[in-house]
Design a protein that fits this description.
With about 375 residues, this protein is of the alpha/beta class. The protein is built from twelve helices and 13 strands. The longest helix is centred in the last third of the chain and has 19 residues. The mean pLDDT is about 95.
Amino acid sequence: MSATVPFNALKPAEDAADVRAAIDRVLASGWFILGPEVEAFEAEFAAASRVPHAVGVGTGTDAITLILRALDIGAGDEVITPPLSAAYSALAVMMAGARPVFADIDPERLTLDPRATEAAITARTRAIMPVHLYGQAADMRPLEAIAQQHNLAIVEDAAQAHLATADGRPVGTIGVAAATSFYPTKNLGAAGDGGAVLTRDAQLAARVKRLRNGGQTTRYRHDEFGVNSRLDEMQAAILRARLKYLAGWTAKRRSIAARYRSALNGAGVTVPREFDAGHVYHLFPVLTDARDRFQAHMKERGIETLIHYPVPIPRQPALQSASPAMCPIADRVCAQVVSLPMYPGLSDAAVAAVAEAAATFGR
């Protein structure tokens, strides 16, 4: 049967008129790359994220790579990162020429385990890259202490955590820089690809701006090896239009999450804990040893579910050259995790249907 509650809905809704006006404004301007819309969005998103600098780039993957390159992290260097994330987290490290080293996850928070992180440090380690997964910040204070003790940079992967906080501190303000993504499914999504680097460091921001534009210091003068990774004017304008809705959308996500948590208390699936009130619920995962049966159960009731992520990154064929260590907790979680619909456009009736269907599994 077709899903009566789809996993996501990406068409503009309450923001439709503003998005249309933004598109028309760019078309009328005739300026499409690195212009006033990008500059305005960078300033507005930096202010919303409570950092001095935001640099728009082509993708969230590029944002990670460009941060590492701006820190001169590359060949021969190692970056510690978790095995549970989109594979692009680790692929971005490889794009910078460095080696991703995987430290297992905390079994309850599902983010980088500080003890496993410290055990993974070698003489070649240059950075720790925690992923703020599913909208919840990683366990940052012990990771900060480890980084300080070993003189390592912290690069935050905040692709799934727009405006989230960790112990009241905005993500992106904790490490030397943070990378985020505006892929259409993200809490703040573009109508295509896009990403940004967030940082308090003016020199790092300036270098990322050079690197994203071919290493140019002035037009046609390339002073270092850069790439072509520029957030375009159309996407910047759309993101500007949607940014003013983000706080309200986040509140709706938190409200939906609270209803799910209440309904699933004592149910046949496990709901990962909310460790921080700054959780922005990019996704709402649950864990079950009977994932196939659970997905079939939900599908029979018209509820679409997805898996984030079925294969731990160290087990991806593309990562074989990194000689990754195995991470048993991530292996287990990847075999159990399944995501419920979570987006601001869910109606009260749809939320009730999802909650009831999930709560009756196994009864």
